[in-house]
Amino acid sequence: MNCSVWTAHQHCPLCKRQLTEEKASLNTYPNYHSDAKRRNLKQRVFLFIAILIMSTSLLINLLTTPNQLWTFYIVGPVLYALLSINHTILSKAHIGSKIIFQVLALSAMLVVINVTAGGERWSVHYVIPFLVIVATLMVTIIILRKPMKWKEYLGYMMTMIILGFMPVLLFVSTLSYVLWPGAITALYALLTFTGMILFANKTMKNEIVRRFHF
Amino acid sequence: MDQWYKIDNAGKIFHAVSNPANSSVFRIAMMMKSPVEADKLQSALDDVMKRLPMFAVKLGKGIFWDFLVENDKKLFVQKEHRFPCAPIDPIETNGFLFRVIYYEKRIAVEFFHSVTDGTGALEFLKALVYHYLLEQQAQIENDGSILDIEDQPSTYELDDSYFNYKSNHAVKNAREGHAFQIKGTPTEETTVVHGVMKSNDIRTAARAYGVSITAYITSVLIVAIYYEKLLYRSRKEEIKIAIPVNLRKMFPSKSLRNFFAVVNVGIHVEEHTTLEDIMADISKQLQTKAEKEALQLGLNHHVKLQTMLAARFVPNFFKYYALRYGYKSYGERTKTMTLTNLGDVHLPEEMMPHIAHMEMVMYPTKKSPINGGICSINDQFVLSFARTIEEAAIIRSFFQELTKTAGIDIEVYANDGG
């Protein structure tokens, strides 16, 4: 009553003073518990392990063979594993976004390893175009197997088609000098897009209208 | 499964600015006289969902604007396990942008603000509780105050009334001065404190000053903020309270989607300013700012921003970034607190004995960490404060001021009272 209001709680909700010795029987709200906190803890544990491995390997590398930075062979895969655990495994993200994330993360990791090793640019010549084709094929298969869910995947499919032209851009920008894998990826993206247009029914057109409304 | 809706004018902003610290999720609840039966509530929900397709939606991702699309999954009632107005996780709700919660005697709906406003949510809750009571074999005659689920959904209920009522007149200048902002120790979970009093006591108190209930409560709130935060500060900034106004009262609309405006009323309180001075000023501001002509200008302004040709073809990502910036700079910084008044709720007479009182919980935000909601029914006036800071001094001072100046009896309960 110090706050000049009445309450049935054991402690005043306004000033926190204890008002009675007895535990109040008022049951207006539950006790809260959060799953997000537990998930968050897992993610922080993995992050700490990743930092531990990367910093230790960097230190050993600098102390033993400072002229040869082999630590990137460890940093790349560890970062990839960390992101894969936190996004692909632990997060509730859409499977389409997980596929696209994997394409980008795997590509980045392989480029890092390739640059560290030096020599032939096998990552941009062959691996990235191949990864894009496999990912586009995966999204296509999911849509064909679950036609009821195609609307959910339309945005991811469009993203994959756009990514399909990336290897050709790498060639144009002279980062890559082997044309045929990039050309095949672009053709595959173009064919997927053509297939989508040709086999589109009214509902797909409707879906495109709503996605592009302005 | 092909029905889809553009998100309405106000809904676009809530969608762009929502994040874990600003859920854009508000709650309206009815406290029943007996514990809630979950199976009967589920049956009532299944029935009501068929009648209100505009709520049975999930979010669709577009290039220039996101949209709402029909959701054919089932929405399950949930036993309350999270704090009020927690962000809606579509995975947990089967894609739906609202949840139906029960706990002991409470039936609550929590809506993401992009779907509807307080009026739309109230219509939903009224229909839900009506059908819940019918499931319990209560004898209730629908006097027309509840949506009839036998009726076909009306296209008027789907109307984006902002567009419908925009006019070619001038638009309101959006520039407004910054207001005093409450700061405190942030908490992860939202704490709510409800103050229950007799509607008649509040009405009598407001009448004694010749002002409306909203003007009265707003003024007492300003006094409480002043005493707790500005009395011993050299820089006395303006205290502004943002009050949502139901536009359906001025512009005839049956829409169950968002159709409201926000008016900011405020005052520079000095040491010599009396409660009477504040009430006179706030009451006058409320009258002029909530006039139809003033609201029309604001409505035109918001529709114009959305329909600007330059903005239309900007991809979502950039547009939402700009909306977030505008919201922080011109929306959040121009108010100290939001106080929303759902008013006195009318239900069929036979429903009243089953309902103890109602709660309206307005989600707090980072810049506005304490917000208030008002709802009254059955002569029970409930003022609920939701906060994401530890300090409750303003709320305590507000209730003390009410009891001191008007002698009103208040009972409080909270989700952290122990």
Can you describe what's shown?
- The complex is a heterodimer of chains A (about 210) and B (about 425).
- With about 210 residues, chain A is mainly alpha-helical.
- Helices cover about 70% and strands about 0% of the residues of chain A.
- Chain A has eight helices and one strand, in the order βαααααααα.
- The longest helix of chain A has 30 residues, at about 35-65.
- Chain A starts with 5 loop residues before the first strand and ends with a helix.
- In chain A, about 20% of the residues are buried.
- By secondary structure, chain B is of the alpha+beta class.
- Chain B has two domains: about 5-160, Chloramphenicol Acetyltransferase, CATH 3.30.559.10; about 185-415, Nonribosomal peptide synthetase, condensation domain (Chloramphenicol Acetyltransferase).
- Chain B has eleven helices and 15 strands.
- The chains are: A mainly alpha (about 210), B alpha+beta (about 425).
- The interface of A and B includes residues 6, 9 and 11 of A.
- Strand 1 of chain A pairs parallel with strand 15 of chain B, so a sheet runs across the interface.
